[in-house]
Amino acid sequence: MNIGINTNDEDLCLADSTTTHTILKSNKYFSCLVMQEVNVSTISGTTNIIEGSGRATILLPRGTRLHIKNAFYSPKSNRNLLSFKDIRLNGYHIETNNEGDIEYLYITRIESNKKCVLEKLSAFSYGLYYTYINVIETHVIVSQKLTNKNEFLV
């Protein structure tokens, strides 16, 4: 079924209330990945498109970080799926809201007894909400003893 999504866009992610796990197409989001085939049940039956699982961290467009303890790795998947469960496990809330005639899915958090909208996910005309995800840049600092004070290695 073609629902009008460019499946070549690996950073497009659908917010999915029915998936039990976040499913990511690229291993770049994982900080720890265990390769293993996992069978998953779908409405069409059992499939083995999952090649691994592990810890992943993704960054949403407005800077919200999601740490996912048990995401599935599926390079054969047509799209990334972000589980509502994983949004909630990060301490965020989910609600829909209309701005004019446009419906959004909000990811919110309560700060100082006030609701803050962290992310606004747009909806396709057929009701699926989507966003784009990014990798969080990391920098590693290594402690190294200098044997020659005039030498510096990067």
List the secondary-structure elements in sequence, H or E.
Answer: EEEEEEHEEEE
| Tally of helical segments | 1
**Measured on Cα atoms, how large is the radius of gyration?**
19 Å
Q: Assembly type of the shown chains?
A: single chain
Question: What low-confidence regions span 5 or more consecutive residues with pLDDT below 50?
Answer: 1-7
Largest β sheet strand count, sense and barrel closure:
6 strands, mixed
- Let me know the number of strands: 10
Quote the CATH topology. Cathepsin D, subunit A, domain 1
CATH class: Mainly Beta
The percent range for strand residues is: over 45%
Mean residue pLDDT: 85
Portion in helices? under 10%
- Specify the overall morphology: globular
What does this structure look like?
This protein has 154 residues and is mainly beta. It has a single domain (12-132), classed as Cathepsin D, subunit A, domain 1 (Beta Barrel), CATH 2.40.70. The chain is 4% helix and 51% strand. The protein has one helix spanning 84-89; strands at 12-16, 23-24, 30-42, 45-59, 65-73, 80-83, 93-99, 102-111, 114-123, 129-132. The strands form two sheets. The protein has a six-stranded mixed beta sheet. The chain has a four-stranded mixed beta sheet with strand order 2-5-4-3. It is globular, with a radius of gyration of 19 Å. Mean pLDDT is 85; it is low at 1-7.
